[in-house]
Structure formats: structure tokens, C-alpha cells
Automatic annotation (TrEMBL):
Signal peptide: none annotated. The keyword Transferase applies. It comes from the Bacteria. This is Maltokinase. The keyword Kinase applies. Its EC number is 2.7.1.175. One of its GO terms (molecular function) is ATP binding. Keywords: ATP-binding, Carbohydrate metabolism, Glycogen biosynthesis, Glycogen metabolism, Kinase, Nucleotide-binding, Transferase. Pathway: Glycan biosynthesis; glycogen biosynthesis. It is an enzyme of class 2 (transferase). Belongs to the aminoglycoside phosphotransferase family. Pfam families: Mak_N_cap. InterPro entries: Kinase-like_dom_sf, Mak_N_cap.
Amino acid sequence: MADTVTRSGTTSPGLLASLDPLLREWLPRQRWFAGKGRPVTGFSQVAATELLPAGARIGLYHLLLRAHQPQSPGDCYQLLIGVREALPPRLAPALIGHVTSGPLAGRTVYDALYDTRPAELLLEALRTGARIGALRCERDPEQRIRSGLVPRLMTAEQSNSSLVYGDTFILKLLRRVVPGVNPDLELPLALAREHCPRVPAPTAWMHADVDGDAYVVGVLQPFVQGAADGWELALRELAKGEDFAAEARALGRATAEVHRTLARALPTATLGRAQIQPLVDGMVVRLDAAAQAVPALRPYAPALRTAFTALADLAAEGHTWTAQRVHGDLHLGQCLRAPTGEWSLIDFEGEPARPLAERRMPQPAVRDVAGMLRSFDYAARSADPPAPGWAHTCRAAYCSGYAEVSGADPRTDPVLLRALETDKAVYEVVYEARHRPDWLPVPLSAIHRLAAADLP
Ligand SMILES: Nc1ncnc2c1ncn2[C@@H]1O[C@H](COP(=O)(O)OP(=O)(O)O)[C@@H](O)[C@H]1O
Ligand SMILES: [Mg+2]
């Protein structure tokens, strides 16, 4: 690929070479870096656009870089690199490093999302539907974007990075990007077309075009002011010893509204034996790998396997299920409650670790339900003291709320629900064993329950 900086037409062949040693250190330390634990051995440029000339007081590059790592083809990351003589103290957390060679020698480079001017420039590009170098902005003509909104970078732990503009809009910049239709834009757009009020409607979005491939790199949407996320709220109520059933029921209703609209807006499918068997096979493979990795799971493996084979057996008897587009990574942290009490669902990216094609496949809607049920359990077990009864009440209320809107209570399909919840809990066991061993008892308590087939 040409090592070109596209806006000004100038080429800067040494740009990547001069950033390389700094990025090797900096990138693996970022919360959103997916390749933790393996070194970055180099970069290749997928796209580069000069947004502000490097010679100016503030320079700005938009980069898509593939980070090479041993045993992996390398993920592609979106970076906005600011260039200054020196950083003012307020930008200290943004520092990437001081460049020693190449075209930027002697200058300081930093994560430009922390800086006002670059953040303003992104909003301006979205507002005006700009095309700059590889970047192409589009917007919903129905929504107005005021100019001059003051940006701030969200500091929450995230898998991507978000800028909030004047408490009016939030711009999510995707960090790990892949070419193709991104469900994080696709699904909210589809829901907005159907006037579904449970999801903030995309206001504008940005693609990077590279050799005929389009990468979604940013989505701007209305900021839900004064919102609290479901996880925060649940923990707060737990700490007060309050029940959360009314909220759980409202969340069930919101989930069903979103599902109903997605089923109307996008393709659905029928899953019979031929489709269920590979799903079940996948679940069994993941269980076997998990049991291999986490000894504490082993005693439960045979019983858990029956959760999966029971689903295959039903399919073999001729039972079928409807599949549709789903959220794909639904949990309390992906739900926002506005001060009006209305819930919104956000973050339709799905599980970023899974391939895009898989994330966009129609699936049983109960998969999202299983995710939320696990989330209530997580909240309850992270309380001090743990409150399993609280989770039980929330789970029941959530399913009831879901049934009120959809007409189908997820608990009436216990085999599917148990299989999906088990698959999720197995994933959690592996995750916690690897990243947060202190949390391992949380999914293990669910494993204990699921192995005994004690539902819901
Ligand atoms: N429309 C919105 N209004 C208010 N806050 C939002 C909105 N969208 C996202 N957020 C906040 O930003 C956080 C991260 O957003 P999310 O889309 O989940 O990104 P990530 O992919 O990084 O998890 C959310 O947990 C929420 O706190
Ligand atoms: Mg999220």
C-alpha cells in the first residue's frame, strides 16, 4: 500500500517509520488494544490522512494502522495523532512520545482525542458532510448539528473512545476497525428508520475508504443527558438494599421493542436441525476448550454438555426457531436510563472478538435475553453481601416485561435459554480466569446452577 498522506497530496514516506518505536510502546497500554500479552512487532499503514498540516501549531493525522503481532494477522486500529512542539500540562495524559527521527523529528506526538481543536475538527467534518483524504462523512439530513459545541473525551473504561460535544452529541470512534457493514451503525440506522425510540438515532457517521473497502470509523448520535447506565443503577440499588424489579421489567420491554423492530426491518431466518447442529457444535467446542483451560469447570462439563445436546435433540425432533438480527452483546452496561425513566440500548457492535460476518448473522433473539439474565446475576454477586434473591427477582421481571411486548416469554423455551446462558457463562469463566481471577466465583455459581438445570 502506498505510504501516502492524502489530504495535502504530499507524501511523507518516513511518517510511519518515525512513529513506529513510540507506538509499539504506547498502543499495547491502551485499554482498547485487543492484542494484550503479545508484543507489537511493527505496523503497516492501511490509510493516512493529514487533517491539519504537521508544520502548523497543531498537526493532525488520521491513521488506520495494522499492528503486527506474533501468531496473528494483526488488527487494524484507528488513531488520531496530534503533533505539537510540546504538550501543555492538560494534555499530559495524551502523550505518545517525542519523535527523534523522520519528518516529525523534534516534535511531540499525542492522542489527539484529548485535544479541543482536533475534536472540534471532527465534529465540523461530520456537520458539513466533508470528504478529506480517505475520510468520508455522511449525515441524517433531518437532524441539526449546531456548530461550536465544546468537546470532552469520555474517561470511562471503554472498548472504543467517545467524545461528548456540549452534552448534545456523542461521537464514538471505533478503535479496532474492520472493513464492511458495521452493526454499530447498521442496526441503529435500521431502528431509526422504523422510528424505534429505544435507540439514539445516528446523526452522522464517518467512513474511511481504502482500496474499495469502507471502514466505519465513527458514529455521532444524540447524547442522552443525565443518563445513568444500567450497571451503575443496579449496583446503586443493590447497595441500598432496594429491589430493581420495576427497572428490570422496563428493560425487558425495551429489549423486546428493539427485537420486534429489528425483526421487521432486517432479514430473519428459520433455524432447523441443519442450522442448530453447527451452533451446538460450536458451544461444545467452546466448553471443551474452557474445561481444558480452567480446571474448576471440569466437574461440571458433562452436565453442561447436556444443556447443549438437549438443544440438538429438540432440533432433531423437528423443532424450529426463528432467528433475527440481535444486539449481540447485551448487558446492563449497554442500557441507559434517561432522567425521564426511559431506557435506551446502545453499542450494537456485538462481541468485537467475533468475525463481522458472524456478528451480522440472524440469531435467536433469546441470545440477548440470556446476556441480560447473566448481567443481573453479575450485579447481584458483586454486591456485598451477594444477593442471589435480588437477581432471581430481576430475571423474572425482565422476562415478564419482555413477554408483555413480544407476546413470547423467553422462559417458555427453557432448553434454548439454558443452552445460551450456559454458553455465555462458559465464556465468562474463561474470561475471568484469564483477566480477573477474583471474579471467577461469579460465573462459577451460575455454572453450578446451570449444570443442575435449575431454571430460570
Ligand atoms: N447516546 C448516549 N448518551 C449518553 N451516553 C452515552 C451514549 N452512548 C454511549 N454513552 C456512554 O458511553 C459509554 C460507551 O459507549 P459504548 O457505545 O458502549 O462504547 P464501547 O463500545 O466503547 O463500549 C456508555 O457506557 C455510556 O456511558
Ligand atoms: Mg459498551
